[in-house]
């Protein structure tokens, strides 16, 4: 069981140099997360010098809060015996996760030093495909036989509790480990001592399969307010659980990935923090889409060049081009954000395309009316006294600008909804195409709408 947060040490305590004894004292008096934050400023060897001689349980908790790449670097500096001791003390899911990230030579070095049960547990957990429920589950859970009495079940939980991640839920299994039901600790405490587990267990178990997507499993925990979710194999046998804290980590990871993709940042989310990631990796993750979109952006320049005569005749149109482009980008991004989120939460699917477009059309028409009126008033106010070419009036030019902006709002909103839905239909990530591609497409359509409206109404 993780500790409750304690008062955090001051910044000066976290970073001030001092003896290992002082840092160990800091670790023992602080919450493991705060201690890990304080130690993260040290070199990997120095971190182990501090953690080596403290209580193994506390050491494992602090180590689990270190940044993943710091964990890997630290393990890489350890002798095989210390490496094996550290991994042996870790919870099964954290141990398997760390083992996946270790270099191959470190894996080969540490496996022979581990107990056979731990080796098999690592092999089994790391055998599942990354991103699945099986890859993030832990084998550290409590099981009960359906024929046990409540008194015997409570006694068994007392025995196994120190080695289990949670005992609030105990899972009822048969001799083949097939999942029959579950009981909560509250159920056991309130039940008669001579009742059997079978009498009080809940048979309507919510579970997931090892092959299910990890995000789907986390969403189940979120939806049903579960403390843990049992994971079964294709035969219905219980093989692990995903706890609520792991679900939070999964959802946070998925949100981070969506945010990065939404802003056209490629590559994995990474295991380092922002400051620890080398600048060239940031460049590598960003440059691809930016170069591609910059090349596509040349189309905007071609359009402006084609309508150069129009701008020359009515130069005031150039002053309001940024307003039309920005408004289209803003409304399109809003629409894309709403649709991407609805897709991520499974509120809609690509089959709902016409319903989504109809709803966004209704929203966009209202927004277009409001923003069109504001644009007309803005032009009439800001451009009073401006030099207007003969044959034109400020009112007619304001009408062109406001009408073009209104049409841009409608088209940008519909494009913002359609792009992620199309991507989802093609089995692509909706977030990847939603924002950066949207901005470029909306800029191009906005310029075309702007200039064709001017030609149509002003005859230029």
Description:
This protein has 460 residues and is mostly helical. The protein has 3 domains: 11-127, Alpha Horseshoe (MgtE N-terminal fold), CATH 1.25.60; 143-244, CBS-domain (Roll); 297-458, Tetracycline Repressor, domain 2 (Orthogonal Bundle), CATH 1.10.357. The protein has 25 helices and 6 strands. The protein has helices at residues 11-15, 20-29, 32-39, 44-51, 56-65, 68-76, 80-89, 92-101, 104-110, 116-126, 133-136, 150-160, 185-190, 197-200, 214-224, 244-262, 279-296, 298-306, 308-313, 316-319, 321-344, 353-382, 394-425, 430-434, 436-458, and strands spanning 143-144, 169-173, 179-184, 208-209, 228-232, 238-243. The strands form 2 sheets. A 3-stranded mixed β-sheet has the order 1-2-3. The chain has a 3-stranded mixed β-sheet with strand order 4-5-6. The N and C termini lie far apart (74 Å). The chain crosses the membrane at residues 287-304, 356-377, 397-419, 431-452. This is Magnesium transporter MgtE. Homodimer. Residues 1-20 are annotated as: Disordered. Its main location: membrane.
List the helices and strands and how they pair.
Layout: H1 11-15, H2 20-29, H3 32-39, H4 44-51, H5 56-65, H6 68-76, H7 80-89, H8 92-101, H9 104-110, H10 116-126, H11 133-136, E1 143-144, H12 150-160, E2 169-173, E3 179-184, H13 185-190, H14 197-200, E4 208-209, H15 214-224, E5 228-232, E6 238-243, H16 244-262, H17 279-296, H18 298-306, H19 308-313, H20 316-319, H21 321-344, H22 353-382, H23 394-425, H24 430-434, H25 436-458
Parallel strand pairs: 1-2, 4-5
Antiparallel strand pairs: 2-3, 5-6
């Amino acid at each position: 069981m993780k500790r409750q947060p304690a008062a955090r040490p001051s910044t000066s305590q976290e970073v001030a140099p001092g003896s290992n004894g002082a840092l160990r004292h800091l670790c023992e008096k602080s919450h493991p997360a705060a201690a890990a934050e304080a130690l993260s400023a040290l070199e990997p060897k120095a971190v182990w010098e501090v953690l080596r001689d403290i209580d193994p349980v506390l050491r494992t908790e602090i180590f689990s809060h270190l940044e993943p790449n710091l964990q890997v670097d630290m393990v890489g500096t350890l002798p095989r015996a210390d490496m094996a001791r550290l991994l042996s003390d870790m919870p099964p899911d954290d141990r398997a996760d760390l083992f996946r990230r270790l270099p191959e030579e470190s894996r080969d070095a540490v496996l022979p030093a581990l107990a056979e049960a731990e080796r098999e547990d690592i092999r089994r957990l790391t055998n599942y495909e990354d991103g699945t429920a099986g890859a993030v589950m832990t084998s550290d859970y409590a099981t009960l036989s359906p024929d046990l009495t409540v008194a015997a079940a409570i006694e068994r939980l007392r025995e196994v509790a120190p080695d289990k991640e949670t005992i609030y839920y105990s899972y009822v299994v048969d001799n083949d480990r097939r999942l029959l039901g579950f009981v909560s600790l509250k159920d056991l405490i309130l039940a008669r001592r001579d009742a059997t587990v079978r009498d009080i267990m809940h048979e309507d178990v919510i579970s997931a399969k090892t092959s299910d997507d990890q995000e789907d499993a986390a969403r189940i925990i979120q939806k049903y307010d579960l403390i843990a979710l049992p994971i079964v194999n294709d035969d219905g046998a219980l093989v692990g659980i995903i706890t609520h804290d792991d679900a939070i980590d999964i959802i946070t990871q998925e949100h981070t990935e969506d945010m990065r993709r939404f802003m056209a940042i490629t590559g994995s989310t990474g295991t380092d923090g922002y400051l620890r990631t080398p600048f060239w990796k940031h460049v590598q993750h960003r440059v691809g889409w930016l170069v591609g979109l910059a090349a596509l952006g040349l189309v905007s320049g071609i359009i402006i060049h084609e309508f150069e005569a129009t701008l020359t005749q009515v130069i005031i149109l150039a002053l309001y081009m940024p307003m039309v482009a920005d408004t289209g980008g803003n409304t399109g991004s809003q629409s894309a954000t709403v649709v991407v989120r609805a897709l991520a939460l499974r509120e809609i699917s690509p089959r709902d395309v016409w319903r989504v477009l109809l709803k966004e059309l209704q929203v966009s028409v209202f927004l277009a009316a409001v923003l069109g009126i504001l644009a007309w008033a803005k032009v009439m106010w800001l451009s009073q006294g401006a030099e207007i070419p003969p044959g034109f009036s400020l009112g007619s030019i304001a009408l062109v600008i406001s009408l073009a902006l209104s049409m841009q709002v409608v088209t940008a909103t519909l494009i913002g909804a359609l792009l992620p839905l199309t991507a989802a239909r093609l089995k692509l990530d909706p977030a990847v195409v939603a924002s950066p591609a949207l901005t470029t497409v909306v800029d191009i359509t906005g310029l075309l709408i702007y200039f064709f409206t001017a030609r149509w109404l002003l005859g230029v």
